[in-house]
Specification:
Two copies of one chain form a homodimer. Chain A folds into two domains: 5-61 and 373-426, Urease, subunit C, domain 1 (Roll), CATH 2.30.40.10; 63-368, Metal-dependent hydrolases (TIM Barrel). In chain A, 36% of the residues lie in helices and 23% in strands. Chain A contains 13 helices and 17 strands. A seven-stranded mixed beta sheet of chain A has the order 3-2-1-4-15-16-17. In chain A, strands 5-6-7-9 form a four-stranded parallel beta sheet. In chain A, strands 11-12-13-14 form a four-stranded parallel beta sheet. In chain A, strand 12, helix 8 (272-281) and strand 13 form a beta-alpha-beta unit.
Chain lengths: 429, 429
Amino acid sequence: MNNSFILRGGIAFSNGKNNIITYSKGYVVCVDGVCKGAFADLPDMYKGLRVYDYGNNLIIPGMSDLHVHAPQYTFRGIGMDEELLEWLSRYTFPEEAKYANLDYAIKAYTYFTEDLRRCFTTRAVVFATLHNEATIELMNQLEKTGVITYVGKVNMDRNGGENLQEASAEQSLKDTVAWLDAIAGKYKNTMPILTPRFIPSCSDELMRGIGKLSKERGIPIQSHLSENKSEIAWVQELVPESTCYANAYEMFDTMGSKELPTIMAHCVYSDRLEMQILKKHGAYIAHCADSNMNLTSGIAPIKKFLDAGVNIGLGTDVAAGSSMNMLKTMLISLQASKMYYRLVDTSVKPLTFEEMFYLATEGGGSYFGKVGTFKDGYDFDAVVIDDSKMFSMRDMSVRERIERMCYNDADVSIRDKFVKGKKIFSAII
Amino acid sequence: MNNSFILRGGIAFSNGKNNIITYSKGYVVCVDGVCKGAFADLPDMYKGLRVYDYGNNLIIPGMSDLHVHAPQYTFRGIGMDEELLEWLSRYTFPEEAKYANLDYAIKAYTYFTEDLRRCFTTRAVVFATLHNEATIELMNQLEKTGVITYVGKVNMDRNGGENLQEASAEQSLKDTVAWLDAIAGKYKNTMPILTPRFIPSCSDELMRGIGKLSKERGIPIQSHLSENKSEIAWVQELVPESTCYANAYEMFDTMGSKELPTIMAHCVYSDRLEMQILKKHGAYIAHCADSNMNLTSGIAPIKKFLDAGVNIGLGTDVAAGSSMNMLKTMLISLQASKMYYRLVDTSVKPLTFEEMFYLATEGGGSYFGKVGTFKDGYDFDAVVIDDSKMFSMRDMSVRERIERMCYNDADVSIRDKFVKGKKIFSAII
């Protein structure tokens, strides 16, 4: 299969956040890794290209996971009766400390990268640990998967305990530069992202240094924002001069810009002021509903943020989220949105399925450029899905089938997965 | 395999609602279909029995699904942007009307019963439709699965539209008696349960007739209670003399008794008064969190009911719930409970994993008698689970593994399933 071809099947993709275009037997065209559009009838100009007919399979854009912790993958699904700060100190920090051992990292990251290769995700933004060697190992492994990722060596110079804390802000910044230098020019699919864990883990000096480094090198930033009430109160103590948590990031020049947007995971408790800060900087919210429910954090009012024009994608947030399956993340995000409406504020309508499909595909995909839909000029990221095990007594429409697979992912499987026109996973091989 | 044997593996079972007993390499003993207990070391008296060694697999009690609609199985996962009453009229009632056609029912029910045979459920309480022939067909199919079930021909003599409504209360009751007579003595595993759909579907006369029939024949009742605010308001209009929805059922003598408990699905909005009515009658709540989130109904305060001593089990409520997988139901029920605590009432603590495991096994199982745990004298219902695909960097305890499989069910599979000591499903055959 070269990099120009046509896929045929049941096609669905977002056309704006409120509309899903579907073709029951349609064509989606890839030329040199770029999508040339999807069509009910194949335009004459593409009739020379080879057509791969997937019959009744579904073909959708690849999904973007804007927030996932690679080192936490191996303990996902345990300790889930805890809340954030207790869970971090009891489970997460002791596990991440083990990545000081490169042999441990080599083995553990194999599981993570293989799952990422096989899931609905074609783009991901990943936290590693604070360890340079292990982070480079993770990037080496990810590069081979063909999934396009941003990966961050984590910065943390306080409150990590003796086993998961850098010696000083200076040392943390020095290690960060060494990491960036070591990987410069090394990868095609794998990019660095600066990753101050969150303000409780990073001194003011470290935060300022990261803000400066981001500007100097043109490297974006990811972090966590307003996930849990105890965390927010702690940030207010640590940075008393800030007007809110987002403002603390802003003070340190780490909130990014429209050209180099920062990704902030969670924003469960972000109010109008924080929303304005996020919007002003062009920042992305990584909405992690599974994680936010599991750790009893709360529910982010995503519909409100979306209507206000804030950039938003979905994050699985493994291991506080228990799975990298974006369909499950969509389901739980829909349920979260319905409960926010029902239990918190009936003026904030639930997200529609159309909006959720958009968030999982183009919403998060836009962080990577023209990614996440089948319109002309977008990168050709696609997932071919076999849902034939989902018995039905009648022919379901493509729109019904993509909703059904999201509410019930157990009976669907991925047949092929493409990134920029390259097949990076096939169930058959 | 005869009906007396021993299973060896990683064993977990509830000992009361707050405690899970585990053995990493334990034994659970079955004699004549009855559990004789689980042990770390095999007692001498059982050393003559054959041991089936499942190695590192998990062995847990079978689960009970207290609320599932068989005819809705084939359209699960669509129309999920709707709320209850709109969803019923747009999707559910038109689909259920099709079961007037026996050929349709024969085919559609095949999918439902095969899934039920293969899932974690060993006991289920099932809604059919109002059609006698189709209901008997469903019962015939269920009997063959070996899963022990209660099945209800639905009663509805009003508000079903022209295609899903019985001619009169008298006709509905006459058909119900004809159905009971037709199946009397026919099955070993499949029992009838009287099933007035809910008060909006049943006239006062019909409700009273069902209450009378229940007492005369000693057949229990299942229905729906306080699921959705519009539904509750409607019931208040329809039965203006009732003090609450539960009281309306009580007035018609359909709330059952400790000897013959009624199952009420949902109870999302049941207050202290309704809780007292449920408890007084020994009624069971079928908690259907997946359904309650999907239809934007709300979250039932299950922890409060549990602490008050009300009988509770879990229900998948397909098709408002999208799957018969009880692990997924457990996950979503845990998330729902955490969000009730966080968003509605911090005096109602989240359900612990121990409590959720209890609800899925013995909580619902107790409706069927001594069912749902591995203590001496309980029916031997067991599920053997292979979780070897869940990679980990260390040996997880059995307690960790059962939590992990509930938060992330995608990587576990059922190896064997037993009901009353009979193997009714095996992945190998």
